[in-house]
Amino acid sequence: QVQLVDSGGGLVQAGGSLRLSCAASGRTVSNYGMGWFRQAPGKEREFVAAISWSGERTYYADSVKGRFTISRDNAKNTVYLQMNSLKPEDTAVYYCAASKFGRLIITTLRPSDFGSWGQGTQVTVSS
Question: Are 18 and 83 in contact (CB under 8 A)?
Fold first, then answer.
């Protein structure tokens, strides 16, 4: 089982940027497709972005396409989410997660397709 620790959240003005990090331990992150999800108060957890184990394939929710970039550094056992042009509606707790199926990413990209989760990091975008 891989253990994940999310970091990098904070308070930023609309139009600003943040970079989230997800540090893995226990097993190497290269064994997993990885994803980022977010959950706003009173809402269900929703998919944000995912990346294949090699980094060759990436997937994005329509709401963040063109503004967010997911990347990974397997040598550092870390996955990143660069968030630019942030909007108030991006406010949420952000979680990284490892695919339940190891290197395979199920392209339905549901939270139930992912196993290990980070503890979450709060992102607040003010208008």
Answer: yes
pLDDT in tens, 91-126: 999 999 999 998 988 888 999 999 999 999 999 999
DSSP states of 77-119 as a string?
A: TEEEEEE-S--GGG-EEEEEEEETBTTB--TT--GGGEEEE--
| Residue with tokens 């040598």, as numbered in its chain | 75
What count of other Cβ atoms lies within 10 Å of the Cβ of residue 21?
Answer: 18
**Close Cβ partners of 39 (under 8 Å, ≥ 6 residues apart):** 45, 46, 92, 93, 95, 120
d(CA 63, CA 113): 20
Q: 6: which 2 tokens?
A: 């999310």
Instruction: Kindly state the tokens that stand for 88.
Output: 């108030």
